[in-house]
Automatic annotation (TrEMBL):
The keyword Ligase applies. InterPro entries: AMP-bd_C_sf (IPR045851), AMP-dep_Lig_C (IPR028154), AMP-dep_synth/lig_dom (IPR000873), ANL_N_sf (IPR042099). Residues 337-422 form the AMP-dependent ligase C-terminal domain. It comes from Armatimonas rosea. Its EC number is 6.2.1.30. This is Phenylacetate-CoA ligase.
Length: 426
């Protein structure tokens, strides 16, 4: 497969950007005044001019707009009658964002998901199982529609237990599984409990999204161990932005931003200046084709590390993110002076095959934040106490911090097909 060079890509990006900007000015109440104020109402002469002139958009600005102008806010380019699709976020950060799309914007996002499937080598003869209860979250629906457009047999997994989903996957000779990393592990554990040999399944690829995991080598190895013969493919997106990235076919754990559809910047979260390749920063996105409800220079909160190579080994010049999504700017906690990210804890715990599930409880003791790790071993673990001691030692060695680790009975901690909620505060 051939890919455009950087100059050709940026020329096309600028053309798409200017079509978008001129579409917003007549009637998008949220963005039209901002564009006019900085002299971009008739478009930008260059991508550099756009980045220099237009201020960043934050999630709080979108939240404030929807609170003040409920239920959908003012970031709508067309009359409400033009909109045909409704989605919303999970509300885990305290406020549920509602998002509307026109038919054209929806098809643009479905096209992005088709790129995800193409990168994972999904073809018309494949059978895709979607292990989700289909709620109002964008990713389920766009992925399902993309599978249909490719001509695949698409099997919805809503309203099923894990055992029923496994049965459906096996009986229908499913070749492609879509789920979260956590739920891929859960299905593998249920298969072990029921004596099901997943090596005999037809699943050859597992496409995951919704949370970090596939970019963590230990988590990736765990999933591929539970699903012999299947390769894990990472992807990420957001309800308010759309499907954003595809995994590199030759460098597992590296995500490519679909820059034919997005403008991508990586900025220092504090200075808001571009970071150098190889340095960590916050991903900022502009979606170029979601005209009905776009976001321009949106601070996603996702921490990423751009690859230093201008052209990837796969031939893409699109932005490559080493390790995928590394965490979020609002996820970090400071425990006795040590910065802790959930993905870093996950990377340690998933090195141990006998760890079934875990939870980190944050509590304040004598004005200091403390973290306690609840560890649930698999039923097959023969020496739980030895596992606890080994895990606690590994955490101390990695973070130079004692994180008390305690065992909980098998089946105690909740499992979810959605984003796992493993960090709680008391």
């Amino acid at each position: 497969m051939s890919f455009p060079d950087r100059a050709a890509l940026e020329t096309e990006q600028l053309a798409q950007l200017n079509r978008l900007l001129t579409a917003l000015v007549p009637s998008n109440v949220f963005y039209a005044p901002k564009l006019s104020a900085v002299g971009l109402s008739e478009g930008a002469g260059s991508l550099a001019e756009f980045y220099e002139k237009l201020p960043l958009t934050t999630k709080q600005q979108i939240v404030d707009d929807q609170r003040a102008n409920g239920p959908y806010g003012t970031n709508l380019t067309y009359p409400i009658e033009r909109y045909t699709r409704f989605c919303q976020t999970s509300g885990t950060s305290g406020f549920t964002l509602r998002w509307l799309d026109t038919t054209e914007s929806w098809e643009w996002m479905v096209g992005s998901w088709r790129e995800v499937f193409r990168a994972a080598e999904v073809e018309a003869h494949d059978r895709i199982f979607y292990a989700f209860s289909f709620g109002p979250f964008l990713g389920f629906w766009t992925a399902f529609a993309a599978g249909e457009r490719l001509g695949c047999l698409c099997l919805p997994g809503g309203g099923m237990s894990s055992a029923a989903r496994l049965k459906t996957i096996l009986e229908n000779r499913v070749t492609t599984l879509c789920c979260t990393p956590t739920y891929a592990i859960r299905l593998g554990e249920v298969a072990l409990e029921q004596g099901i040999d997943l090596a005999s399944s037809a699943v050859r690829r597992i496409i995951v999204a919704g949370e970090p995991g596939a970019g963590i080598p230990a988590t990736r190895a765990r999933i591929e161990q539970l699903w012999p013969g299947a390769r894990l493919w990472d992807h990420h997106g957001m309800t308010e932005v759309g499907p954003v990235s595809v995994e590199c076919p030759v460098r597992p754990g590296v995500l490519h931003i679909l820059e034919s559809r997005y403008l991508a910047e990586v900025l220092d979260p504090e200075t808001l200046q571009p970071v150098a390749p190889g340095q960590r920063g916050e991903l900022v996105l502009t979606n170029l084709g979601r005209t009905g409800s776009p976001l321009l220079r949106y601070r996603t909160g996702d921490l990423v590390q751009p690859s230093p190579e201008a052209v990837c080994a796969c031939g893409r010049c699109e932005l490559a993110l080493e390790g995928g999504i590394l965490g979020r700017t609002d996820d970090m906690v400071v425990v006795r002076g040590v910065n802790l990210y959930p993905s870093a804890i996950e990377a340690v715990l998933r090195r141990f095959d006998d760890v079934g599930e875990y939870r980190v409880t944050l509590t304040t003791i004598n004005a200091l934040l403390e973290a306690i790790v609840d560890l649930e071993p698999l039923p097959t673990c023969t020496e739980p106490e030895a596992l606890r001691l080994t895990v606690e030692a590994a955490l101390r060695s990695t973070f130079h911090l004692r994180l008390p680790t305690q065992l909980v009975p098998c089946g105690t901690l909740p499992r979810s097909e959605m984003k796992a909620q493993r960090w709680v505060r008391t």
